[in-house]
Amino acid sequence: MIKQTHTVLKNVFGYDNFRPLQEEVIDRTIAGKDSFVLMPTGGGKSICFQIPALILDGITIVVSPLISLMKDQVQALKSNGIKADFFNSSISIEEENDVVNRAINGDLQLLYLSPEKLIAVSNTWLKKLNINLVAIDEAHCVSMWGHDFRPEYTQLKVFRNSLPLVPFMALTATADKSARKDIEEQLGLNKSKLFISSFDRKNLSIEIRGQVQKKKKLQEIINFIDRRKNESGIIYCLSRKNTEEVADYLKKEGHSVAFYHAGMNFEERENTQTDFINDDTKIIVATIAFGMGIDKSNVRFVIHYNLPKNIEGYYQEIGRAGRDGLPSETVLYYNMRDFVLYSQFADNGANSTMQKEKLNRMLQFTEAKSCRRKILLSYFGEHLAENCGNCDVCDNPPKDFDGTILAQKALSGIARMKEKDGITMLINLLRGSNNADIHSKQYFNLKTYGIGKDVSFFDWRDYVIQMANQGLIEIMYAESSALKITPIGWQILKGEKTIRLTKPLRPKEKNKKQKVTKTTHEDEINNGLFSELKKIRYAIAKEENMPAYIIFNDKSLKLMASKLPTTENEFLAISGVGMNKMEKYGEEFMDVIRKFKSVAKPRKIGTTIKTFNLYQEGLNPSEIAEKRNLSITTIFSHLSQLYSEGKKVDIEQYINTINKVREVFNKLGRKIELKPIYDKLNEEVSYSEIRISITLILKNE
Description:
This protein is an alpha/beta fold.
């Protein structure tokens, strides 16, 4: 017998199988027990509480820190036919009253609240609800050890104690061991079980680029984006000024880009985020203030323009790429100036020692010469047996050599400068630079002056950082980043020990082992169909005022382009297609696929007949759409099809643009393609009107 949870997963969400641990969490929750869910960004946390919400009697309360996250998730739930809504500061008093009444009357299955709103109403109307589950999303916000600490989250323990028999679920993508323990205590979880999913996001490639000059870095980013036309991406910057500079630079190069930072007013930030979510802006250049509540599944790349502050933040930020499971890329740029600046911030902030330790771990990760994913996963307590094969180190493994003499030259230079100067001065000394600082300090008289002029500045910097990572020297940030020789360093200098260094990776070698995938004729054809399906998705998204990826994500569209479903059963077999989405959008997409395959539409389609029956009862298209919970576009598609099949449907009464459409239709060679006509008419005539107009033109000839 098929379990109820599996039936809901397939019929509502359109998936055949659960991801690892989801089913165990759901079963435990339905049994009334507390859970702590630690899954990576894009790992499927939401399903863990959404399915119990649909199976248990009553209403599920979801505590979420960001308005944008609530809005996204509620839209996605509604598109799957689920009764959900949110209650936060973005809605009017009238809307608040409507949400409250529907919650009390049992007309909602899930209700999202901000922690502030939850605390404010916990002793009023919330007491009238039959609460079956409470899910605390982004639970790391409750912990002082978490990187997004929110004081209001700490008050949730009182709410938990008021519902002793209701299961609670804490969910987060990022929490180390100290934060996990703190979260359980702060929320008052009762004998909760910890579920840790694999943090290995295999579809994300990892590349790290160190010590790249600003001008070269901008050009590399331009080249990177040029090769990925029309793909969505996020570029994270350290400062507000950086975000504006980089965005302006990319805009001048003709890219669809906007910046986002905390210095903008609420409306500006909201509009920028909405444009990105809706694919009207392709690239966002932002500070880390952006993205925590972004559920956008088709972000294809994340670039860090500067060094992140800690591995948790870095992991969460790169996790915003490829949430649909398709291959996506991440690139991190860093230099020592970023590290020094963050160290100074940490000195003046709370938990200074812990913040600096995390920053050091971040730097060690960027400077490492072994598989990046192994290091990343080990930080989260997960062991990867084999190298990942999808990071820059695996693609181009560094070669090591006996670096003792090279290290001795550098150590000698540090000693002769009396351990008072930093990396740049040391390299200038070793390379025999003629600059003013060398002359003012009389360093040209030292025996080490010019002994390393055969090594480039870039390579020397890499070797010195390696020496620091291997413990030969210390960088004293509190003393203007002066270099100090450690006891091990002195042993190397005196010839008592040896050291091996790795050759720096040349930028020109970077793509040497880049994988080349052959594109077949079939791939090209399917890519063409994929583009057409994206156009239809975008048009529907505009009409319904929701993000395109909520209708269907890229992965579902690629499967459609590959499997070519033309019947309801075939369409329902596509991952991500549930019954509600089949009803609402299936005809639109199958129509494109049928034309692509030159396959005739099946004579009888249940959903079209339902529309015809309601039409015969006297309902107009808007009323039919509302009654069937379908888009008006889909209803017009049904009526158009019925008319062309000879059914008595008076569609001419709904259309007054036939002459405009006829003119453009004829100019474009009478091709039945809606998008070119839509564009030619300056987007002033809807797809529905264009479709009906063409049907009338062809039928009446």
